[in-house]
Amino acid sequence: MKTQGAAVAAPLHWSDTWLAWRDRLLASPRFRRWAEGFPPARWIARRRAGQLFDLLAGFVYSQVLLACVRLGLFERLGRDGPQSLAALSAVLPLPEPALDRLLQAACALRLLERRRQGRYGLGPLGAPLVGNAGLAAMVEHHEALYRDLVDPLALLRAAPGQGAGGALSGFWPYARAADPAALDAQQVAGYSQLMASSVPWVAEQLLQAYPVHRHQRLLDVGGGEGALAACLARAVPGLQVQVFDLSEVARRAEARFAREGLAGRCSASGGNFLRDALPSGFDAISLVRVLHDHDDAAVLRLLAAVRVALPAGGRLLIAEPLADAPGAPAMGAAYFGLYLWAMGSGRARTVAQLRDLLERSGFTDVQARPTPMPLHSGVLVATTGVLATPSVNLN
Ligand SMILES: C[S@@+](CC[C@H](N)C(=O)[O-])C[C@H]1O[C@@H](n2cnc3c(N)ncnc32)[C@H](O)[C@@H]1O
Known about the structure:
The chain is an alpha/beta fold.
């Protein structure tokens, strides 16, 4: 007898039956023993076991990387070449047995490599970290995320938009602030520096995916401390770029433009893009690593403001990590899913989800442009048609 309110079971599809059989098989110790002993199935069994072990051990691997970054190992080996344990131990603040343990771990993870005469050199995964301040800063700031993730269920139980009030949401205060425009210089400094340090990777994707040189005046909304604006201005002679960001961040952008001799072509203005009208007079607007910070309601609000600010035929350029980035299946849902939850708002979106939001906001001709390194960023381009009544009220 059915109890009132109980869910009605959906009819079984053949795929449900097949998957239930597969699950029972993979969960069966007898099957596992058979697969391990049967040569054609053994490699699959080993690969699966290895993948599961990597999931279990992932945090340890991350901490080995963090320890190497904090010791400046990659920079040192990049500068001085391969070194012995004794030579490294003489200059690094770790006792020799502990350093030995770390070096072995880093070699196993291909961050370092054993070289002739017992020396250690850079490994294929460690070499790209040399001179890469952005990557080192990213590694370092994950400490805040991992602190929040110590109890993942506590983090997930926090109401959406609360980010558990943890370390990461403190690092990104605009995600939860009642009035982001009121954030002070100190509150925006950490995340602004972090984002600026990784801008070159994203700028490269954008410049390769889209001919920015077609434009004369570009407004970079949520443009941070102007690192992208500076990259674009240097890459596209004659391009005028304005950054629109929270007032204290815009101040940092102005300081950068003055410092880098770009004040003639780059400027910045301050405001809250969820409340204030955006400056007009631009033939393109960019949103770089901005939309994924926000939930759908805020994204629609922002897109409506962009729509109003652009002339008919104006271009919107979006660059950010996509949930369906080729070659990075876990990045969107697993990494950004939990990262942005801890931060307090937003999620990585698929091309289809972004297209839907763009079309609902009155953009047409939405195109996903391939980027050479989708892990760093995807790129979408959309065009404004004739302005119809905006579907989102900006007041
Ligand atoms: C993740 S950062 C991206 C910065 C830059 N576009 C980049 O890729 O390096 C998001 C930016 O949006 C800005 N932002 C967040 N909420 C905002 C708001 N309500 N109004 C204006 N800017 C905002 C932040 O200050 C920050 O600079």
